[in-house]
Structures are given as structure tokens and as C-alpha cells.
Design a protein that fits this description.
The complex is a heterodimer of chains A (about 210) and B (about 450). By secondary structure, chain A is an alpha/beta fold. Chain A is built from nine helices and five strands, in the order H-H-H-H-E-H-E-H-E-H-E-H-E-H. In chain A, helix 8 links the parallel strand 4 and strand 5. In chain A, helix 4 packs parallel to helix 5 and helix 6 crosses helix 7. The longest helix of chain B has 20 residues. Chain B has a single domain, classed as TIM Barrel (Alpha-Beta Barrel). Chain B has about 450 residues and is an alpha/beta fold. The chains are: A alpha/beta (about 210), B alpha/beta (about 450).
């Protein structure tokens, strides 16, 4: 098993010695970017797969996230100054009136683990706060969660505010939550909808891929 | 005995902890207790035995005593002593009376061997509605002879006002919901029907406070929903609701939801957490009923793992406390589909034989699609619950296992079926011939294929 495969495996098994393994890999002359892409990212993806298979829960992902951050901290000084391991910046919130957070938290966590910088604003967040924070974070994406039919209109409201303020084109807006659908996303002019946390990562990868950024 | 004021006090003096650290300590202890419990889940036995129930009850007490509750607003841990927890198990009511007049029903303590069915409360259970469909659809549930209580849906809009949670709109629209649900009960000739957590679409405390007793609704016809958030969490709004219940002589609807695939990984962990949650919630709600439901991160309720967790919690509470347990059933498929009927039979049989005191069911499409609800689903809850009484637990497990095998693979892409106006005459409130034929055919087939006699 290669050192990169061992790193992926260690992360997948929530091994506290993963960062030490990354240090060893660097000492052995492994390419820092390869350590991230073929070691850390692969390990995190496996953790996501285990979550989908009900083998891991959110707590295991939280631990994996901490381990991955430790690993990136070790690698970062060895990276090309121009190379950024961050794919894009996402501001995410559960919309006003809604205090459900499990789904939103899961999306935040998986995005972070998959290389996105995430600013999680929490629950019951008003439209202007979301927009102000997106501007402050220079966000690429705004993610809006709603778990109730009576708070879905608040997703539409954020998009309306963005339009009225003349900044709609600055952000990709994606929506989600149990009662939402692709039809709903289309009807309110969102840029995307995802069924679950894993699908959100894939959606953002396609929205924020090379040449797709605004 | 511990009460709401103690929990309030501990919410401002308890140990400060970040929510994430609470989640991790909760999960660590839960995983340990589940592993030490010795319980092995047999997926073909959705109704667990006494030993399993006792192991879950014991683990739940340890979890609650060790981890405590978490107040998300003050970010402090509300610690309970073992003595306080044990006292909560010995001081609950074993039954209560709901509804009024000729519609009064007594919720009596049950066990898996009980020869009488649970109380059957049906309705769209939070499902969304357009304005014209709301009243006739609710009437379709209320008019069923098996209906002993009506649980309402949510109006999306009322007379031009969009229902938006947390805003004055919500107060206006939930008031209309309350009026329409009472009218549906009256039109069905059931003016004293129990109406469950009320107003059904009320989410914010202001909407609940404004509308709970509107229209002169007597306390026995309704409850106030107080939900412990997953897992083991409360906040100021929950304490406000508990205080309202105390001052208005309303029995609180203590509601515990557990999500498999989030903090709990499987049915066993979920049932331990859920049982601990019920005990913990009573510390401030002061209630005796426990409304329990388990979903998974896909939002489904009729999977084997969800129903195992609900049945296990019911059995654990029966052995530990003997209080009334209310079990929620949602079908994933929509009205006028065989799948929705099969899902409904599965949970009704399972929850009856698990010893549940009340089933709140009859909803469809996981409660998220507008207008896709119908009273025939409620009829099936009542008939299946009644039929299940004559089964042994082994026979019930067999019936449910067979039903799972028929529909479980289709759950992620369940057929949405019909809207209410497509499967009922909205003037006469009668199901279409197609719907009646489908219902009869399903009943006949289940009678032939299993030991379940729905007639």
C-alpha cells in the first residue's frame, strides 16, 4: 500500500496518527498536492460514503474533519504559494423562521471536508444578514436550507433581495431541504438544488468547476 | 420532583459547553452504551422482546444521567441526577382522556398482548394544503368511523396571506387552520373530536400562544407540542411552551424525534437516545405522554430500521414507565397507491403489537407534497390496528417483515399517487370507485397472503 493510500485509509478509520503519516510522506518527498488530492480527499470521500451507508454518523464526520484540517495544516507550508486547496467559498444558512439545522450542518461539514471554505450562519437567518455575510466573505455560493413548507418562501425572498440590490449575478444560489425540489428551485430562480448532502458536493463541484466561477 | 423552573435555573447555571462538544460527548457515550447493551438487532423482528426493551431502558437512563440535556440558547448542560430521572419514571400518568362528549376517548395502558387496539388519531399530520382542498380533505379523515382524533395539515396560503413561519402571516394562517379543522370535525358529526397538537401548523411560540385556545377550544381537545430537538436538546422556546401548558392546564404533547444517520447511526442507538429524550423532556414539560418518531437522513419513516427504533422505544417505556406512547406513521407513497396502503398496514400492525397507546397516522408523501392526503389512509390505520390485536407478536413480526419486502426497495422513489380532488369527490367527500377498488383488493390480498384479517 502506498503512503498516499495509507493516509486515505488512516483518515477513513479516524486514526489520530494521520497527520504524522502526512509528515512522513512529506519527508519521503511526496508531492504536497498529491498528498491532499490522493490521500486526504480520498479518505474524506470514503468517510462520506460511510455516512451514506449509515456506518458513520455526524460525530464521526466531525472527527474526520478535525483530522483532515490537521493534515492540511501540515501540508500547507509546502504548497506552491499560488496553489489553493479551497475550491470556493460558500455562505450557508437555514432561512428565516426555520430552526432546523441537521441537514444544513451536514451539508456544511461535507462541503468543508471536500475543500470548500464554508461560512455557516446558523438557523433562522434573515435575508439581509445572509447577503451582508456573503459580501464580507467574498462568497462564490449562497446555500439556503429550509425544512418546512412555511419557510420555503424565505428562500425565494433571499433571491428577490439579491435581485433588488443588483447583486444576484455575483453569487450562485443553491437551495435544499426536505420539502424542496428541482421544480421549486427552478421556479424561484435558484442556480441549483440538491437532494442531500452528498449531492450538494457534486452540485457545487459542477457549479464551481474550472471556467464555471463567476 | 424536578420541574420546569429547575431546568430553567440549570439552563443558566449549568456547565458551559460548545454544542459540537456536547454532540461528541453524547455520541461517544451513546456508542459505548449501545455496544455494552449486548443487544443484537434482528431485522426480521421489528417488535423487540422484553430483554431487549430492558437493555434499552437501562442504557437510556445511563445516557441521560451521564450526558444531560443541552440548552442550545444558553449553551449550557442541564444535568439531571439519577434520583431525578428515576423519579420521572415512577410519577407519570398511565392514561388520559382526550376529546369531549360523544367523541371522548380514553387512552389506556397497553402491552403487546393487549386485546384492545390503540387510540387511532388520523389526518394529514402536517402535510401542506392549498386553500380549497384543506377542509374537505380533513373532513374525509374525520368522517371515518375508525377516526378517534384528527391531526391537521398546514395551509400554504389563506385569503392572499402566505404562510411564513415566524411572521405575523403564520398567526393569521394558523388561526384559519384551527377554524377549518374544527369545522371539518363538526361537518363530520364529530364536534368533540380530539385535535392533537394544536394549532397543527403552528411553529413559532407566538402562533401557538395566539391560536391554541381560539374558538373556545377545551384543553382536553388539544395539546401543545413541545419537541426536544435531536439529540437531547432544548431551548428557551421549549421552556416557554412548557410554562404555557402549566398556566393553561394543557397536557403537553412531549415529542421526541430521532434521526438515524445523523448523531445516531442505527436503530439501537436511536431507540436509546429516544428513550433518554422522553425522560429528559418530561423534566421540564411535566407531561406523561411520549410522542415518538424516527426518521432517517433521507426523511423516510417506514423503513425497517425506523420502525424497529420506534417499537423498541415503545417497549422500553412500557417496561420502564408504563406511560402513554404515541407513535407516528407517515407513508412515503401517495394516496390511491397500493404502496401507501401497505406502508400504513405495516406501521399500524407494528405499533399496535409493540404496545403503543396511540397511533397518529394516515399521512402520505412523507407529509411534504401539497394536497396528497386522503381519509382512506386513516381508515386503513384503524382497520389494521384492530386486526393486529388478534395476532401474536411473532405473527405480527412475520406480517410486517413480509410487507417490508414488498415496499422497502421502492421507498426512495415512492409513487406520489393522487391529489385529494383526484381520488375523492370533494362535494360528497366520497372516495372514487378506483380508490375503493384498490383498497378492497389490497385488503383481500393481505387476507389471503398473511394471517391479517382486515375485516
Amino acid at each position: 500500500m502506498s503512503i498516499l493510500e495509507r493516509i486515505a485509509d488512516a483518515l477513513d478509520h479516524l486514526d489520530e496518527g494521520t497527520a504524522d503519516m502526512v509528515r512522513t510522506a512529506l519527508e519521503e518527498g511526496e508531492d504536497p498536492l498529491a498528498i491532499i488530492e490522493k490521500g486526504i480527499v480520498v479518505g474524506i470521500r470514503r468517510c462520506g460514503d460511510k455516512l451514506a451507508a449509515y456506518e458513520y454518523g455526524v460525530p464521526e464526520l466531525l472527527v474526520a474533519g478535525e483530522l483532515a484540517k490537521d493534515c492540511v495544516r501540515v501540508v500547507r507550508p509546502h504548497l506552491d504559494p499560488g496553489a489553493s486547496p479551497t475550491k470556493a467559498t460558500v455562505v450557508i444558512a437555514t432561512v428565516q423562521g426555520d430552526i432546523h439545522e441537521l441537514g444544513k450542518n451536514l451539508v456544511s461539514l461535507l462541503l468543508e471536508l471536500n475543500g470548500y471554505a464554508v461560512v455557516d450562519l446558523g438557523v433562522d437567518v434573515g435575508p439581509m444578514t445572509i447577503i451582508d455575510k456573503a459580501e464580507a466573505a467574498d462568497a462564490d455560493v449562497i446555500g439556503l436550507s429550509s425544512l418546512m413548507v412555511t419557510t420555503m418562501p424565505a428562500q425565494e425572498e433571499v433571491i428577490a433581495y439579491l435581485r433588488d440590490l443588483g447583486v444576484r449575478e455575483r453569487y450562485r444560489v443553491v437551495v435544499g431541504g426536505a420539502p424542496t425540489s428541482q421544480e421549486w428551485a427552478d421556479s424561484i430562480g435558484a442556480d441549483g438544488w440538491a437532494e442531500d448532502a452528498q449531492a450538494t458536493v457534486a452540485l457545487l463541484d459542477s457549479l464551481c468547476g474550472e471556467g464555471e466561477r463567476r | 420532583m424536578i420541574g420546569v423552573k429547575d431546568v430553567l435555573e440549570r439552563s443558566v447555571t449549568g456547565r458551559i459547553m460548545r454544542e459540537r462538544d456536547f454532540d461528541l460527548s453524547f455520541a461517544k457515550r451513546l456508542r459505548e452504551l449501545a455496544a455494552d447493551s449486548g443487544v443484537r438487532i434482528d431485522p426480521t423482528q421489528v417488535i423487540p422482546d422484553d430483554a431487549t426493551a430492558d437493555a434499552i431502558g437501562a442504557a437510556a437512563i445511563e445516557l441521560l444521567v451521564d450526558v444531560g440535556l443541552y440548552n442550545k440558547d444558553s449553551q449550557r448542560v442541564v444535568q439531571l441526577t439519577r434520583e431525578e430521572v428515576m423519579e420521572l419514571t415512577t410519577t407519570r400518568l398511565s392514561g388520559l382522556v382526550l376529546g369531549e362528549g360523544g367523541d371522548e376517548v380514553e387512552v389506556r395502558e397497553r402491552k403487546p398482548g393487549s386485546d384492545f387496539p390503540p387510540v387511532v388519531v388520523t389526518g394529514p399530520v402536517g402535510g401542506p394544503f392549498t386553500e380549497d382542498v384543506f377542509l374537505p380533505c380533513h373532513q374525509s379523515y374525520a368522517q371515518e368511523p375508525t377516526c378517534q382524533g384528527l391531526l391537521g395539515g398546514v395551509l400554504l396560503r389563506w385569503q392572499g396571506v402566505e404562510n411564513m413561519a415566524g411572521r405575523p402571516n403564520e398567526v393569521i394562517v394558523t388561526a384559519a387552520e384551527g377554524d377549518l379543522i374544527r369545522e371539518a370535525a363538526e361537518r363530520a358529526g364529530r364536534p368533540g373530536l380530539y385535535l392533537g397538537p394544536y394549532p397543527p401548523g403552528g411553529v413559532s411560540t407566538q402562533a401557538i400562544f395566539c391560536n391554541h385556545s381560539a374558538g373556545g377550544l377545551a384543553p382536553r381537545r388539544s395539546q401543545i407540542p413541545i419537541q426536544l430537538m435531536p439529540e437531547l436538546k432544548l431551548g428557551w422556546a421549549k421552556i416557554d411552551l412548557a410554562l404555557y401548558c402549566q398556566s393553561h392546564d394543557v397536557h403537553p404533547w412531549t415529542d421526541i424525534v430521532s434521526v438515524i444517520g445523523a448523531f445516531c447511526r442505527d436503530s439501537l442507538e436511536s431507540s436509546i437516545s429516544q428513550t433518554a429524550g422522553v425522560l429528559g423532556a418530561w423534566s421540564f414539560t411535566g407531561g406523561s405522554t411520549a410522542s415518538i418518531w424516527t426518521t432517517d437522513i433521507e426523511g423516510l419513516c417506514t423503513r425497517r430500521r425506523n420502525m424497529w427504533a420506534n417499537c423498541a422505544t415503545t417497549r422500553a417505556l412500557e417496561r420502564l414507565v408504563g406511560n402513554p406512547v404515541f407513535l407516528l406513521g407517515y407513508a412515503s407513497a401517495g394516496p390511491c397507491t397500493e404502496m401507501a396502503l401497505l406502508e400504513t398496514v405495516a406501521y399500524s400492525v407494528a405499533y399496535t403489537k409493540a404496545g403503543g397507546e396511540l397511533i397518529w397516522g394516515g399521512s402520505t408523501c412523507n407529509g411534504v407534497d401539497p394536497d396528497r392526503y386522503a381519509g382512506m389512509q386513516g381508515r386503513m390505520v384503524g382497520e389494521a390496528a384492530a386486526a393486529a390485536c388478534s395476532l401474536s407478536v411473532d405473527e405480527a413480526n412475520e406480517v410486517v417483515d413480509r410487507l417490508f419486502s414488498e415496499y422497502e426497495d421502492d421507498l426512495p422513489h415512492a409513487p406520489k399517487g393522487c391529489t385529494f380532488p383526484e381520488c375523492y369527490d370533494v362535494e360528497t367527500i366520497r372516495p372514487t370507485d378506483d380508490y375503493v377498488r384498490l383498497y378492497e383488493a389490497t385488503v383481500s390480498r393481505l387476507g389471503r397472503d398473511s394471517s391479517l384479517d382486515l375485516r
